Amino acid sequence: LINPVVVAPTIAAVGLSFYSYGFPLVGTCLEIGVVQILLVILFSLYLRKISVIGHRIFLIYAVPLGLAITWAAAFLLTETGAYNYKECDVNVPVSNIISEHCRKHVSRMKQCRVDSSHALKSSPWFRFPYPLQWGTPVFHWKMAVVMCVVSVIASVDSVGSYHASSLLVASRPPTPGVVSRAIGLEGLCSVLAGLWGTGTGSTTLTENVHTIAVTKMGSRRAVEIGAGILIVLSLIGKVGGLIASIPQVMVAALLCFMWAMLAALGLSNLRYSEAGSSRNIIIVGLSLFFSLSIPAYFQQYGISPNTNLSVPSYFQPYSVASHGPFRSKYGGLPKLPYFYQ
User: Fold this and answer.
1) Which residues contact residue 53 at a Cβ distance below 8 angstroms, ignoring those fewer than 6 apart?
2) The pLDDT of residue 327 is above 70
3) How far is residue 18 from each of residues 21, 69, 221, 302, 330, measured CA to CA in Å?
4) Contact by Cβ (8 Å): 79, 39
5) CB under 8 Å to 83, separation ≥6 — which residues?
6) What is the rounded CA–CA span in Å between residue 12 and residue 287?
7) Are 177 and 205 within 8 A, CB to CB?
8) What are the C-alpha distances in Å from 199 to residues 109, 119, 134, 138, 202?
9) How far apart are CA 36 and CA 28, in angstroms?
10) How far apart are CA 246 and CA 74, in angstroms?
């Protein structure tokens, strides 16, 4: 059942599903977001063949280099007062801002500054996380049912990532046993994440599949060494504070590149199938279209067609929808579509 015709729209749909998040957030601070996108494109497309000490650093480190340069530029702009506005304080909640002048610039102060979170200054140098550090986990069976649905969706995404990765490294497709062990390991890691109180489960990050395509690096040893380095860095609080200081606009700009690569990577798997087959065309077309159209239905459900909106209802964000199409006494069910979006 798992073949390129299934893998291609599954991976591509993940990349396309975030289209409404990418550039709309980049547009809140264009001088940083656009520079981030252009730098990554410049490194990965035009400087990819330049070698430094025998390594194509612009190809391998296109994303971290672009991120570092853009963050440094944002830091200089913040320190030189480019985002300081007279009598406006970034720490004042939006609801408490009275001045119309400050309300006009509050979005730029929040999105462009690197010190809006104060995480870098307030974080300790060293911190050792331990199980149950935030208290005993609370279990609710209704929320557990919701999480089971989310886990199934994440597992389908992971299976597609496994097959896409195997195609990129010219390896055999993962066997049912390999897939079963991988999904089981994700479940075990989710249990550990709950004990450590991370707030999120563990799954295969589909965006990382594009890293193999960009860097041409498919070594397990590189992944193992990288995992060891990340474990060590997790003990250094300033590293987490530095990551938290990255403006959201930079994250959105970076994800614009990653999700675009992901969509293209998914569609590229069609070369391993009979792309001209009418059956395959119908499967891929319907999968991609409904992967965008069905979530839009849930996002816009409940919007009155007679409201005086300046733009059509299908351009409205999902937050304006008052409720979903499901009705039940349990409040979690109507909000289930929003939960896993």
Assistant:
1) none
2) no
3) 5, 25, 31, 22, 28
4) no
5) 77, 105, 108, 109, 112, 113
6) 10
7) no
8) 28, 18, 10, 12, 10
9) 13
10) 9
Every domain of the chain and the residues it spans: 128-235
Residue with tokens 């010190």: 115
Is the entire prediction scored with pTM above 0.70? Answer: no
Q: How many residues does the chain have?
A: 341
User: Under a CB-based contact definition with an 8 Å cutoff, are residues 332 and 140 in contact?
Assistant: no
C-alpha span between 335 and 323 (Å, rounded): 7
* 318 Cβ contact list (under 8 Å, min separation 6): 298, 299, 300, 338, 341
What's phi and psi for 236, nearest 5 deg? Answer: -100, 110
3-state DSSP of 283-335: HHHHHHHHHHHHHHHHHHCCCCCCCCCCCCHHHCCHHHCCCCCCCCCCCCCCC
Contacts of residue 129, Cβ cutoff 8 Å, sequence gap at least 6:
196, 234, 235
Contacts of 84 (CB under 8 A, 6+ apart): none
pLDDT above 50 (res 318):
no
Output the six-digit token pair for 56. Answer: 């194509």
- Cα(265)–Cα(295) distance, rounded to whole angstroms? 22
Give pLDDT, residue 303: 53
Phi, psi of 126 (to 5 degrees): -130, 140
